[in-house]
Amino acid sequence: MKFAPHILAAALLAGTASVSLAAGSGTQSGSSATQATQSHGGQTATGQSEVMKAENIRKMLEARGYSDVGDFQYQERSLVVDAKRYGEDVELKVDPITGAVEKGDQLSEDQIEKMLEEQGYDDVSDISRDGDTFTAKAERDGDKVKVDVNRDYGVIIEERERSS
Question: How far apart (Å, rounded) are the C-alpha atoms in residues 37 and 75?
Fold first, then answer.
């Protein structure tokens, strides 16, 4: 069964349809409705924004440190997907229009440690949290440093020398 792209997109946004986006391909299983994730002027017939292509959402997630991103499932006006982030399994709830992660995005201490090690820090220790910021002691290029990392985005906010 074929749907007009604007009708399927409107149904998906309204939460009345359930489809699965195949991993990596940007296609939807069970129908030829790949057009639903393609841009047609940026808005549906109802004036709402179109959903993003699965491959674009996948690229955004990978840029934020996610790997092994699974199949997207539409659920209650969101995309739900399993992935890994710095070695840990996570379930994400993603906005299909903006690609923003709505749930499941905060990093743990173990993930912060792995992220810093992947970025070239050695001897990561003494990780503590204050609100949305983790602080860790580490070494980089032989220098002892303290590193502040945003818990939600995994972004290094500040790196400064430490005396011990």
Answer: 16
- CA 74 vs CA 29, 82, 93: distances in Å: 12, 13, 10
Look at residue 88 and tell me whether its pLDDT is greater than 80: yes
Beta bridge partners of 159: 147
Q: What residue ranges define each of the domains in the chain, with the CATH number in brackets? A: 5-103 (no CATH), 109-161 (3.10.450)
Contact in structure between 35 and 26 (CB atoms under 8 Å): no
Of 148, 129, 139, give the one whose Cα is nearest residue 158.
Answer: 148
Number of DSSP helices (H) and strands (E) in the chain, helices first: 3, 11
Half-sphere exposure of 66 (CA within 13 A, CB side): 24
Question: What are the strands, taking DSSP E only, across 4-118?
Answer: 20-21, 28-29, 66-67, 72-75, 78-85, 88-94, 101-103
| Mean pLDDT, range 136-154, rounded to an integer | 90
What's the pTM? 0.52
Q: Which residues contact 3 (CB under 8 A, 6 or more apart)?
A: 11, 31, 33, 36
Answer yes or no: are the C-beta atoms of 61 and 111 closer than 8 Å.
Answer: no
- Helix/strand/coil percent split, the chain, to 5: 20, 35, 40
